[in-house]
Design goal:
This protein has about 375 residues and is an alpha+beta fold. The protein has eleven helices and twelve strands. It has two domains: about 120 residues, Phosphorylase Kinase, domain 1 (2-Layer Sandwich), CATH 3.30.200.20; about 260 residues, Transferase(Phosphotransferase), domain 1. The strands form four sheets. It has a five-stranded antiparallel beta sheet, covered by helices on one side. The radius of gyration is 22 Å and the shape is globular. The protein starts with 8 loop residues before the first helix and ends with a helix. InterPro entries: Kinase-like_dom_sf (IPR011009). This is Protein kinase domain-containing protein.
Length: about 375
Amino acid sequence: MSEHLIGAERYWARYQPWLKSIGYILRPRYQPDWKPSWLTSNRPESESEDSLVVQLRALVLDARRQCDNFPVALKLVPTTTQELPIWRYLSSPERLVDSRNHCVPLLAIHPLPDTDDLVLAVMPLLLSYRIPTFDTVGEVLSCVHHLLQGLTFLHEHNVTHLDICTQNTMHDPGSKLYPKGFHPLQPSSYTPDPNSPQLVPSYSVSSRTLAPVKIYFIDFGESVMFESYEKRHYISGSVGHYLDLPEFAEDQPYDPFPVDIRALGETLHRGFASRYSDLELLNPILSKMRVDEPTKRISAADALSALSSLIATQDLKILRKPVTERAYATDYGRKQIHRRIFEARIKGVHPIQPPVVELELEEVKRLPLLSRWWEKIKFWLLV
């Protein structure tokens, strides 16, 4: 929180008039002559939307597209790297129609008015894949399936990400996960009135089962694309967030594709296996992704196949089983999880969402009338 713009905020505020001229609206904090609202509103700073500050070196800022009020993220991308060419390749029409493509789509590119070193890239506004918390085993398995599907897609197109981590694994919450909306910098809160900076807690959060999300990889700044499978080659240098990988230990050239597998394995281990209860069924696959010897590490396609087989063998009772964060579980949180699970069951929603077309899963049968009434009674008691 700050009464003054800091770091990269000043650059975004400087670009505000230009951004408005090309159709993008920034939050009040970055408007000309902004004054902190809490100084005159008698509202605490912590309850004021314009008190929230982006990271000091933030190259990404949220905005809204003026023509349709669509929430977007604006990113300053260097023109001297391969990030933009790779991103454009992955966002081409023939690749966007592939349901396995989980690379964030590039919506638009705008040259900056004052430099050729950077361009403005526009993408959908996303949230960390870990927010909000997961409710069920099925939600976790679905997320992992789509991430492995996305990595398989990348590798099939001879692209290696090389910076898979929690920060670069996101999802599009759509309009139903947070029915009242969310603030990009503080998703647990929202602004009820678009004309007011008042920030209030959001207690109305759905689940990934009831409000399916789309999983995305972002940030291709370290990525490498090869012309073909035959022209793949070893590369050198430590990259990404996991700098302690075995490939980097001896400063020797290495195959970059197993690096992606290990990085995703580490991300999933930290994000799920070591964070949530009742996810032991994932351990065999994650162990194969985290093998130290790169040549013995499972491929993305084989990991996806193994996970698909695992999901197909789980009955609805297992897929609906609640999971809770070990460090943050509360009685209220558990009650809300069970409430959402009951709601999904009453509505006949399969616990694997969004549906995975290629998987043959146990059918969700409509409950008999008496069972529906009993479930509704339990649901009402939990609301």
